[in-house]
Specification:
This protein is α+β, with helices and mostly antiparallel strands. It has two domains: 36 residues; 139 residues, Nucleoside Triphosphate Pyrophosphohydrolase. 20% of the residues lie in helices and 47% in strands. One of its GO terms (molecular function) is hydrolase activity.
């Protein structure tokens, strides 16, 4: 039977605006000790934005963490404005990144992104009935955020999936859920 570890000591070794790193000394089920380095990350949202039933809006943007461009669904972290109401972050990210509002927003699921070292949790939503936001009502994008918006058909995304070219976890999850919806 699986057993819980016991935290003997915990110390924050880095504190930043988006995440912190905690070093833990733990006692294992067999009495031995070990160290855990844990990244505590603020929760986030991701959005499957459908302009119609056969297309989803994706972003192509440069990600410093991988040193390359990636095709992904829009996403963003929760902050003080919407920490307890993730749907508010969905509305904000649709505006900031895609420049649209949604007539219908629905939560699909949530998942831990990288449980091997982080407690990062992401809420996945669907947005439908999209309408362009007038320029005067558009929110500013995050500093340094540069992206291209692409409307991708289900068949095109399926080809990218089959070729192993979707390598972003939230986008893989979104594609698999979209496949499930299509039967």
């Amino acid at each position: 039977m699986a057993e819980r570890e016991q935290v003997r000591d915990a110390q924050t070794v880095y504190e930043g605006p988006i995440f912190s790193v905690e070093k833990q000394a733990v006692t294992l089920f067999n009495g031995k000790t070990s160290q855990r380095d844990i990244v505590h990350h603020v929760p986030a949202i991701a959005v499957m934005a459908f302009p119609d039933e056969d297309h989803m809006l994706l972003e192509k943007q440069y990600r410093a963490t991988i040193g390359d461009f990636i095709l992904e669904i829009p996403a963003g972290k929760l902050d003080a404005r919407d920490f307890n109401e993730p749907e508010h972050a969905v509305i904000r990210e649709l505006n900031e990144e895609l420049r649209v509002s949604a007539g219908h927003i629905q939560r699909v699921t949530g998942f831990y992104e990288t449980v091997g070292f982080s407690d990062a949790y992401m809420h996945l939503y669907i947005a439908r009935d999209l309408q362009p936001i007038p320029v005067a009502n558009q929110l500013p994008r995050d500093l340094g955020e540069s992206l291209d918006i692409e409307s991708v058909s289900f068949d095109a995304l399926k080809r990218l999936f089959e070729a192993g070219e979707i390598n972003d976890q939230k986008t893989l999850t979104a594609f698999l859920y979209w496949s499930y919806l299509r039967g």
